[in-house]
Amino acid sequence: MTPILKISGLTKTYATGFQALKGVDLEIYPGEIFALLGPNGAGKTTLISIVCGLVNPSRGSVTVDGHDIIRDYRQARALIGLVPQELTTDAFETVWNTVSFSRGLFGKKPDPAHIEKVLRSLSLWEKKDNRLITLSGGMKRRVLIAKALSHEPRILFLDEPTAGVDVSLRQDMWALVRDLRDTGVTIILTTHYIEEAEEMADRVGVINRGDIILVQEKHQLMQSLGKKELILMLDRELEVLPSALETFGLRRGANAGELVYTYDSQNNDISALLAAIDQCGLRLKDIQTQQSSLEDIFVELIGSNA
Questions:
Q1: Is residue 37 within 8 Å of 92, Cβ to Cβ?
Q2: What is the pLDDT of residues 42-86, one digit of tens each?
Q3: Rounded to an integer, what distance in angstroms lies between the CA atom of residue 19 and that of residue 108?
Q4: What is the reported pLDDT for 296?
Q5: How many CB atoms within 10 Å of residue 167?
Q6: Domains of the chain from N-terminus onward
Q7: What phi and psi, each to the nearest 5 degrees, are found at residue 166?
Q8: Cα(272)–Cα(245) distance, rounded to whole angstroms?
Q9: Over 90: is that where the pLDDT of 6 sits?
Q10: Are the CB atoms for 138 and 166 separated by under 8 Å?
């Protein structure tokens, strides 16, 4: 499949000498939800800003549906919608006028039917005549999304889309993002909420100190790097681990009556472990399992690349 966004050898060094991006290569495909994860200062916002034409790259190239962002600036930028972190809007303008004006900035002819469709999809229709200063923070963030969608982009960047948004509204935003993807819009989001990426993303990229250290399909990532744990609760406490169990790499759990076995889908000896426990004359009261979350994997990746 041909990527809709292709980033090759992208670097950015500021006048201070700080290198925010170090030869980033990345391909995003049509209709996917791609989550870009990384700690503060990792380069996420710089990367988005370059793609959206807000910051000039030092080296490298970016194409949007085949259009170079520098050589074919207007064509490339018209394909992109950006929802920034900051709630920067004209406080005394109405919702309708703000969104309609954004469409005009891209040279699009007025289309009241499209603006109405966008506002209704974001539950903003009843607020269309309200001034932005009267809206809640969550509603203002919806207005930012409406502005980004006003010119019918094919790629939508969401930079920390649910920052400062309550849990209920966050769920609504997730549903909206899925609906947008279903209409063919490619979604690229940065987030500090790991559960957001785990909930929505098709693929995950991790950036740290200006380097892309991993890009992988979410489920493959969790399968290959996500560890599983088998928690064995015995009918009595053990002062010493029987020698027959030492080869399994067990560790103590919350107390002396719990043993924890770490494994993955490709490498496990669960059957042998249970047989060895039985041969040792131990009895199980209960067994529980748990698996690493995307957050666990993210923390491990960042730690190993610190």
A1: no
A2: 898 899 999 999 999 999 999 999 999 999 999 999 999 998 877
A3: 37
A4: 67
A5: 7
A6: 5-223 (3.40.50.300), 227-292 (3.30.70)
A7: -70, 165
A8: 10
A9: yes
A10: yes
Taking the C-alpha atoms of residue 121 and residue 123, their distance in angstroms, rounded to an integer, is: 6
Q: How far apart are CA 165 and CA 138, in angstroms?
A: 6
Inter-residue contact 36 to 188 (CB < 8 Å): yes
209 closest CA partner among 36, 31, 42: 42
Among 76, 55, 52, 69, which residue's Cα sits nearest to residue 11? 55
Amino acid at 216: Q
Query: Residue 167: what pLDDT?
Result: 66
Burial class (CB in 10 A: 0-12, 13-18, 19+), 233: middle
What the block records as the tokens of 67 is 């259009």
- The pair of three-digit structure tokens given for residue 221, joined into one six-digit string: 């990532």
State whether residue 227 is helix, strand or coil: coil
DSSP annotation of 248: G
Longest dimension (CA), the chain: 79
Tokens 């043993």 belong to residue: 259
